[in-house]
Every structure is written in C-alpha cells, then in structure tokens.
C-alpha cells in the first residue's frame, strides 16, 4: 500500500508535533490502563479508541497544521480530535471550532492533514483521509509508531501522501511514504533537550544525580570526539589526495577552527591546571579513603580468621 | 663407562634436535627420566665439554639439566670457579619459557652460582646474571621468588645499590615462602638505608615485622631494631604497632629491643646530651648489632629536626639564634646545616649572608604543572588497581571457612535473637 512518493514535495517536521502526538498517546494509554483496572467501566474521555482498551493500546487521532510554501510543507503544530468509533469519522464540528481558534492565533497556519498512531497504515484510514480532502485537497497523514524498539535508531514517524494509481484497471488512491526533515526553532531545541534529559524522579541521593549528570557529559564528549575524528580522517584523506579537494568544506573547517580556544595566555594555563590538579587531588583523596576502608575490612577479617593467639579461649567481647 | 657416555651423548643429540616450543614438554619428560638414571650423574664431572656444544639460549632446558648435574657432582672448587663465566652467560641468555619447566633446578643452579661468587669475595660479578635470572623466573613482576633475596644479598655485599632498584620498586603481591619474604624486605630495607631513602626503607622494614608469624624470628627482631632507628631519623618518633601486626610480634618484639626503646625516649627529650649518654650506655649492644652507624645518624638528625621545628615558629631568624636554640657551635656550623637541608629539600629557606639571617618559605609547589597532572594520574591508577585487588581479597576471606567458623561461634554466644546467617554446618 505504501511506496515512496514521487510528488517532489519536501516535508519539514517540527519536534513540537512529535512531542504532542507522543504526549497524547501516552496520556490516553495511562488513562485507559487506569480506568480499565478500576471496577467501573467508564469510557475514556479524550480522543477516540478503536477496540477494547485493555487488549490493544488505543489509537489517537488529531490534526496537523502548518504552512505550505511552494514545494515545501512545514508542519508546525498539531491538536487532538475526537474520533467516533462507530461511524469511523472524525468529529467535524469540533474540528472546525478548533480550526477557527487556531486561525485567530496563527493566521498563517492552515490544516495540512492529520495524524494517528499505529505500526502501519490501515484501511479505515483512507476514509478519514478522504473526509479531510475537502479542507485540504492533498492532506498528509503522519503516523507515529508507539512501540519502543531499542535497536531502531531513527524516529518511528512516517509521513504519507496519497496518489492516484491505476490498480487492476481502477484508479485508486493509495498511501505513499514520503521523506521528511526535522526543523527546529531555538525554543523547541531547549524543550526537547529538557525532555531528553529527564532526571530520575527519586534522584534524591546526590550520588545518582551526579552519576547521571556525568554520564550525560561523558556521552556528549564521546560523540564530539567521534565527530572530530571523522573530520580528521576526511581531511587526512584529502591531504593524501584520495578524495578530491572540496574548497567549501575546507573553508567551513577553517571557520570552525578559528572559533576554537578563545584564551591562550599563560595565566589561563596556570589557573586551569591548578583547578584540574585540585579535582585530581580530591579524586585521589576519595580513592584513598575508599581503599583504606577496604583494607581495614580485610585486616579485621584476617585477624579474626587467622590470629589464633588473640582468640584463644574465645570468650573475648565481640564488639 | 662408554655406555654411559653414549647415553649422555644421545641425550645431547636429543636436546639439540628438540628445539621447537612444542617439543619442550617432550624434552622435559626425557630429561626427567635421564635424571633418575644413574648414568648421567656418574658422568657428571665430564659434562663440561658437552655443555660447550649446547647453546644456552636455544637449548636452555637441556643446558639447565646438564649444568645442574655438573655443578652438583664431585667437582672441585676451581672447576666451578672456572665455569663461572659460562654460568653467567647462561643466566643472561637463557629463555624464560624453558626455565619455568624446571624452576627448582634453576634455583639450585643460581644458588650454587651465588655461593661461589661469595666465596670468591667478588659479589659484584654475580649481580647482573642474577638479576636477569630473577626477571626470567618470575611469572609477573608481582611475584616473589627465592632468588630475590639472594640477588639483594649480593647487591648489599657489593655495595652496588642501583641495579637492585628496578627489582625493589615492584609491588609484591604473591610470595611462596615466608622466609623469602622476610629476607627480601630486610635486605631491601638495608639497601634503601644505604641509598638514604628512609621513607622507602621504613616501608620495607615495616613489612618484615608486621607480617603474620606464629613464632618470633630473628629477621623480624633485627628489622624492628633498624626500624626504630630509621623512623627516629626520618620522622623523630616511632609509631605504635599497626592493627595487622601479629600478636606474637606485638607481645615479644619489645623485649628484644630494649636498648633502642631507651634511645627513643632519650630522643624525645630533644637534647644532645641525653642522647649521647644513652648511646654510651648501650654502645656494646649497638655495635654487636652492627647498627652503630645508624645510631650516629640518629644523633645528627636531631639538629635537623630542631631546625625544622624552628620553621614552624619563625619566619626569619638569625644564624646565631639558630645555633643557640639547636645547641650547635656557632653560626658557621648552623649555616652549614641549613645549607645542607635546603639542598636536600628538607626545608625551604634563603640564607642572607650579609646580615646572617635565614628566611623560611612555604612549599613553593603550586600544583599547576602538567608533570603534576601526570604524576597524580599515575598514583590514581595505581591506587585503583590496588583497590580492586583488595576487594578481591576481601571477598576471598569472607568466604573462607576459618573466618566463617569464628564468626559463627562468636555470634551464637551473644546474639540469640538475631538471625544467624552462618549455616549450622560451620558451627
């Protein structure tokens, strides 16, 4: 049902949309789980569910809005929609009301399409898609796969368009997958960063917080290191002549290098090394204490186990 | 006789043939067999020319067996003496892999070598060969072998301390024989005293008398005496016994070192006259223990200690005042003392010769160099590996049945209410 798109439209997706969809889904999942466990079977409130709440996680539905400029479609925001599971349609009135409200705040945005969750496109989605076609002649369908696959490194988001294809003599609309890029503004970057570095909620102990913080820094430095190494290898290969010279890239590298150490004076070196040495000394002290503690334990155990003379009779007070 | 000679020659031929590493095990069993065979031993004295045929580097194992048989057969001292260069060459060039198959033979060869060298009164000849022997015999730099103490003994007798440093500086984690350990650290302590590195000497001597021992031994007593003297020189006082000293040592050592303990109390008063009186009183004891040199050093260290105490009170002081408070004779002598101490790095000061004042400074080390970073990094790494080893030992002891028995026994007597986590099997 999905092959790669040939429409030539570039999609730019903002992280806000991804966070919104994920948030919607998580909320709903938590609510249905909670209400499914309790004795009353009150139907869940927001969004729609397809099927029972306990067996399959509910699908969420909503609208994506943004701007289309020529061949570029930029998806900025999204909001949730009510889904009527009996008629398999979205609540129209609600949609229009929401659209009006958003138009007041963001006059340039208009409805680009809709989103849902799931692992793949389903048959029922085409109905919804068609119903949106009167608002936007070529709506897009953003699909988020909520299953957590640890080996998969890319975002589990896919964007589908519809194309008219002739299948078995009948022209039919089918979903085709398109590629997209992620576009961020500064505010989004900060919030995504914040979400990504959630500290453990019971991180009351300073040790775990420090460990988490240091792990974060360590992974950041590791990534920086690997990137620098890639650049270095590339430059060396260029020097050896294995790769044709690319002047624009060289200029970029040069500008990067110019941005490096801002301070080079000797006084800076002295102070820096002094602080470095202080930290090292503290680590050394901590290690010493640790080691001394272990040695103390070992010595005590050894004395108890092997020093016959002090334990002869056995009635010495064991404190 | 001819038959015996033939077996020997066939053996030599075998040795020369089996040189590949896979064949060493085979060669070893062959040699062990021939060892029990009388023929080889009877031919002992005549093995010398055969040995010349073999190459010590390639045929190390075979060479070792033949050499051992030769040296322990009935040959005269002169023959052994004549053979010394070959033994030295063997020790320098043999292959460590081969040697480890027959380590006891190797040790006996080295012992014979050492005895001969000592008999000839030229211990210096034996130093380099024995050092390479030690390095080849040990499985890792942390293991102590019997040869270590022999090697250090030779270095001490020859008064060449530098070659021994590379062996002494390794931390020892495994030892087979307690006597080896005691001797090693005792000689090591003496070498460090000779080099005037008193803190390292203290470490070594400390290891001797704090080792676990069921019965007191003479090495520990001597080590303890030297320990008292060196700690007086180095830090001005003798620290009490640490927790891990064995009870035997704690109870009995002091009885044998009474003279030294008197010296300690005299030193604590800080007066030259007291110390000199004490020395005179016990002078025969010190002399019989060969410690008189150290005792004299204790005396001279007193003035150093007093000058160091002055640095904590005064910022500047005149030379005359120094000589008065430290009981030296005149400002010239005190100037000399202070100069020596500055050169040795024991205090930080400047002498202003115009008006005879000494200005004391703080430690100028500001910890802002890259070398300091490297140094600390190394220390931290060393500490980390030590910590790992200690945790491993800790776990090992916790599972030791001797320890568990003792713990279990104590617990049942006093804590009836708590859960006894030691299984009843051990009680």
From TrEMBL, chain A:
Q: Please, one GO biological process term?
A: protein deneddylation
- Gene Ontology terms, MF aspect: metallopeptidase activity
Q: Which InterPro entries match?
A: EIF3F/CSN6-like_C, JAMM/MPN+_dom, MPN, MPN_CSN6
What are the MPN domain coordinates in residue numbering?
11-166
The subcellular location is: Cytoplasm; Nucleus
The record's section on PROSITE patterns has: MPN
Q: Which GO terms describe its cellular component?
A: COP9 signalosome; cytoplasm
This protein's record includes keyword Cytoplasm:
yes
| Major localisation | cytoplasm
Q: Which UniProt keywords apply?
A: Cytoplasm, Nucleus, Signalosome
Please tell me whether the keyword Transport is annotated for this protein: no
What Pfam families does the annotation carry? JAB, MitMem_reg
Q: Which family does it belong to?
A: Belongs to the peptidase M67A family. CSN6 subfamily.
What the protein does comes down to: Component of the COP9 signalosome complex (CSN), a complex involved in various cellular and developmental processes.
Record protein name field: COP9 signalosome complex subunit 6
Name its species.
Answer: Rhynchospora pubera
Q: What is the lineage of its organism?
A: Eukaryota, Viridiplantae, Streptophyta, Embryophyta, Tracheophyta
From TrEMBL, chain B:
Q: Which UniProt keywords apply?
A: Cytoplasm, Nucleus, Signalosome
Residue span, PCI domain: 197-365
Its Gene Ontology cellular component terms are: COP9 signalosome; cytoplasm
According to its UniProt entry, the protein's GO biological process terms are: ubiquitin-dependent protein catabolic process
Coiled-coil intervals in this record? none
* Compartments where located: Cytoplasm; Nucleus
Pfam families per the record?
Answer: COP9_hel_rpt, PCI
- Give the UniProt family note: Belongs to the CSN3 family.
Q: What is this protein called?
A: COP9 signalosome complex subunit 3
């Amino acid at each position: 049902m999905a092959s790669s798109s040939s429409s030539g439209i570039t999609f730019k997706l903002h992280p806000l949309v991804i966070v919104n969809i994920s948030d919607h889904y998580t909320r709903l999942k938590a609510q249905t789980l909670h209400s499914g466990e309790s004795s009353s079977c009150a139907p869940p409130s927001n969004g729609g569910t397809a099927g029972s709440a306990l067996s399959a996680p509910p699908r969420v539905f909503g609208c994506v809005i943004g701007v289309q400029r020529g061949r570029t479609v930029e998806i900025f925001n999204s909001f949730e929609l009510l889904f009527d599971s009996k008629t398999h349609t979205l609540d129209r009135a609600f949609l229009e009301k929401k659209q009006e409200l958003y138009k007041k705040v963001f006059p340039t945005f208009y409805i680009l399409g809709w989103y849902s969750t799931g692992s793949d496109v389903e048959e029922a989605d085409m109905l919804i898609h068609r119903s949106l076609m009167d608002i936007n002649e070529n709506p897009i369908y953003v699909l988020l796969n909520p299953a957590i696959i640890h080996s998969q490194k890319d975002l589990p988001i896919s964007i589908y368009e519809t194309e008219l294809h002739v299948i078995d003599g009948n022209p039919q609309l089918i979903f085709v997958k398109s590629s997209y890029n992620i576009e961020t503004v500064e505010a989004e970057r900060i919030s995504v960063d914040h979400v990504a570095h959630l500290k453990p909620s019971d991180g009351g102990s300073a040790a775990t917080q420090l460990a988490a913080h240091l792990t974060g820094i360590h992974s950041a430095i590791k990534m920086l290191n690997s990137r620098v190494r890639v650049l270095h290898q590339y430059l060396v290969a260029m020097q050896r002549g294995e790769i044709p010279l690319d002047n624009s890239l060289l200029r970029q590298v040069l500008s990067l290098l110019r941005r490096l150490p801002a301070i080079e004076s000797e006084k800076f070196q002295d102070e820096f090394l002094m602080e470095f040495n202080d930290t090292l000394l503290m680590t050394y002290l901590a290690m010493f204490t640790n080691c001394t503690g272990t040695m103390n334990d070992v010595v005590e155990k050894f004395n108890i186990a092997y020093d016959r003379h002090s334990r002869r009779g056995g009635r010495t007070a064991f404190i | 006789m001819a038959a015996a000679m033939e077996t020997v020659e066939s053996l030599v031929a075998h040795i020369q043939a089996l040189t590949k590493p896979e064949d060493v095990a085979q060669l070893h069993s062959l040699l062990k067999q021939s060892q029990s065979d009388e023929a080889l031993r009877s031919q002992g004295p005549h093995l010398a020319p055969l040995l010349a045929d073999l190459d010590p580097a390639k045929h190390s194992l075979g060479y070792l067996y033949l050499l051992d048989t030769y040296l322990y057969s009935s040959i005269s001292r002169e023959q052994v003496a004549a053979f010394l260069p070959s033994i030295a060459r063997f020790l320098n060039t043999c292959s460590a892999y081969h040697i480890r198959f027959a380590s006891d033979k190797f040790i006996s060869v080295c012992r014979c070598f050492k005895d001969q060298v000592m008999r000839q009164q030229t211990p210096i000849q034996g130093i380099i060969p024995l050092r390479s022997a030690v390095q080849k015999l040990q499985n890792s730099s942390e293991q102590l072998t019997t040869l270590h103490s022999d090697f250090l003994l030779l270095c001490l007798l020859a008064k060449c301390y530098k070659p021994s440093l590379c062996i002494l500086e390794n931390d020892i984690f495994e030892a087979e024989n307690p006597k080896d350990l005691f001797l090693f650290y005792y000689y090591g302590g003496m070498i460090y005293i000779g080099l005037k590195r008193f803190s390292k000497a203290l470490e070594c001597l400390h290891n001797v008398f704090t080792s676990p021992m069921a019965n007191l031994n003479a090495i520990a007593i001597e080590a303890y005496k030297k320990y008292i003297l060196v700690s007086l020189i180095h830090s001005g006082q003798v620290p009490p016994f640490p927790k891990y000293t064995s009870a035997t040592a704690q109870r009995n050592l002091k009885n044998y070192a009474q003279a030294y303990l008197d010296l300690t109390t005299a030193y604590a008063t800080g007066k030259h006259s007291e110390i000199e009186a004490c020395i005179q009183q016990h002078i025969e004891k010190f002399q019989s223990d060969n410690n008189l040199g150290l005792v004299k050093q204790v005396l001279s260290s007193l003035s150093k200690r007093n000058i160091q105490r002055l640095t904590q009170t005064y910022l500047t002081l005149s030379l005359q005042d120094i000589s008065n408070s430290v009981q030296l004779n005149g400002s010239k002598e005190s100037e000399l003392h202070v100069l020596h101490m500055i050169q040795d790095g024991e205090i930080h000061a400047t002498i202003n010769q115009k008006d005879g004042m000494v200005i004391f400074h703080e430690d100028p080390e500001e910890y802002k160099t890259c070398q300091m970073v490297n140094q600390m990094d190394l220390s931290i790494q060393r500490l980390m590996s030590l910590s790992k080893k200690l945790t491993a030992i800790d776990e090992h002891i916790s599972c030791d049945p001797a320890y568990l028995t003792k713990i279990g026994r104590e617990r049942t007597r006093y804590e009836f209410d708590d859960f006894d986590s030691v299984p009843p099997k051990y009680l």
